[in-house]
Amino acid sequence: KNEVEQSPQNLTAQEGEFITINCSYSVGISALHWLQQHPGGGIVSLFMLSSGKKKHGRLIATINIQEKHSSLHITASHPRDSAVYICAPTGGAQKLVFGQGTRLTINP
Amino acid sequence: DTAVSQTPKYLVTQMGNDKSIKCEQNLGHDTMYWYKQDSKKFLKIMFSYNNKELIINETVPNRFSPKSPDKAHLNLHINSLELGDSAVYFCATTGNGELFFGEGSRLTVL
After folding, report:
1. B62: Cβ contacts below 8 Å, ≥ 6 apart
2. Burial of A5 (0-12, 13-18, 19+ CB in 10 A)
């Protein structure tokens, strides 16, 4: 079993829909990152969180440390949100472990 | 002014050759990383350096040798390249918990 499991692996939705991507992990962590990788290949850090909830624009990230679960939500999704979203829990010595990514496609 | 810059962005070479990828960050962070993204887009950590000291060395063949001349630079040298080394290599740095990635270096071994 992978240390980090994301679901779904692929998600296609219509513009405007509410999107949820889930991440479950088995490792002990100090924090968890959500990353976005666009088709061009660049990787951008969206959130780093160690508890509770963070919001940035239309993106919301939550984490439940006890349940070892995090979610990324996108409200009012837009075609420009199409990308691969990667969950990356961080353990000791700043070591990141990566999920396999969720490929999101938002159709106009 | 790019925070984390990698060169080259593309590298095509023959099996058996030796090549290097360079990484520089201008954020003043102490910690830098090399990650490998394979053809299935799966990211894995290779190395982590903190202020020029090696912190993490995952099960990477010793053909891969990172070098950090100062805390702003972390270069990756690869000897005797193999077909399986074909991947995108990302350099990254972290400060205050936030991650910054370079644009990636796509290595193709023929």
Report:
1. none
2. middle
- The model's confidence at residue A36, banded by pLDDT at 50, 70 and 90, is very high
pLDDT in tens, A41-71: 789 999 999 999 999 999 999 999 999 999 9
Report the distance separating Cα B12 and Cα B18, nearest Å: 12
**Which residues in chain B touch residue A45, judged by CB atoms under 8 angstroms apart?**
98-101
First to last CA, chain B: 33
Whether the bond into B8 is cis, omega within 30 of 0: yes
Note whether A96 contacts B104, CB cutoff 8 Å: no
Q: Give the position of tokens 């394979």.
A: B38
Residues of A in contact with B88 (CB under 8 A): 41
What backbone phi and psi angles, to 5 degrees, belong to B85?
A: -80, -10
Q: Is residue B48 a contact partner of residue A94, using CB atoms and an 8 Å limit?
A: yes
CB spacing of B42 vs A98 below 8 angstroms: yes
Tell me which of B92 and A27 has the higher pLDDT. B92
Q: Which amino acid, residue A102?
A: T
**DSSP letter string over B22-80?**
EEEE-S--SEEEEEEE-TT--EEEEEEEETTEEEEE-S--TTEEEEEEETTEEEEEE-S
- The dihedral built from the CA positions of residue A92, A95, A97 and A103, taken in this order, carries a sign that is positive
Q: Which residues of A45-76 are buried (b: 16+ CB within 10 A; e: fewer)?
A: bbbbbeeeebeeeebbbbbebeebbbbbbbee
What is the number of residues in chain B?
Answer: 110
